[in-house]
UniProtKB/TrEMBL annotation:
Catalyzed reactions per annotation: O-phospho-L-tyrosyl-[protein] + H2O = L-tyrosyl-[protein] + phosphate
Species assigned in the record: Variimorphobacter saccharofermentans
Lineage: Bacteria, Bacillati, Bacillota, Clostridia, Lachnospirales
Catalytic residues of the enzyme: C11, R17, D126
Alphabetical keyword list: Hydrolase, Protein phosphatase
Name this polypeptide is given: protein-tyrosine-phosphatase
Residue stretches making up the Phosphotyrosine protein phosphatase I domain: 5-150
InterPro entries per UniProt: LMW_PTPase, Ptyr_pPase, Ptyr_pPase_sf, Tyr_phospatase_low_mol_wt
Family: Belongs to the low molecular weight phosphotyrosine protein phosphatase family.
Domain of life, per lineage: Bacteria
Length: 157
């Protein structure tokens, strides 16, 4: 994937928020005709959901939007991902702490929360606990739009 902009979406289990962000962001990029410029994936900081499919609540939202998550299974982030990706995007502050546990120091300033790109510093609530997949989707959509705008502006410089 030479010269592609590589984005890794990260949450705790990689079955709710990060796959939602992965597929929503892929859809946005594709609709703007930029999919040839990006490689987008998602991963977990934990091992507890490894191999499991996308949560039914996330699949329901994505299906309603006409976005497939078929074949996606939870994987864990690795230390190597830090050198492989340009942007490592966490859903909340706990994810950030766990990402640092995996990668060590963020010397290249690649790790941010998704909503940081919107100018807000709040976390995206985990629908595994809240049950509110709609609210999670709204936050992710807003964050992905802001992230895409940021990347496009950064690449123009």
């Amino acid at each position: 994937m030479p010269n592609k902009i590589k984005v890794l979406m990260v949450c705790h289990g990689n079955i709710c928020r990060s796959p939602m962000a992965e597929f929503v962001f892929k859809d946005m990029v594709q609709k703007k005709g930029l999919d040839h410029m990006f490689y987008i994936a998602s991963a977990a900081t934990s091992t507890e959901e490894i191999g499991n499919p996308v949560h039914p609540g996330t699949r329901k939202i994505l299906n309603r939007l006409g976005i497939s998550s078929e074949g996606k299974r939870a994987i864990q982030m690795t230390k190597r991902d830090y050198s492989e990706y340009d942007y490592i995007i966490a859903m909340d502050h706990w994810n950030i702490s766990n990402i640092y546990r995996i990668i060590g120091k963020d010397v290249d300033n690649k790790v941010k929360k998704l909503l940081d790109y919107t100018g807000q510093t709040r976390d995206i609530a985990d629908p595994w606990y809240t049950g509110d997949f709609e609210r999670t989707y709204e936050d992710i959509r807003e964050g992905c739009e802001a992230l895409l705008q940021f990347i496009c502006e950064e690449k123009r410089r």
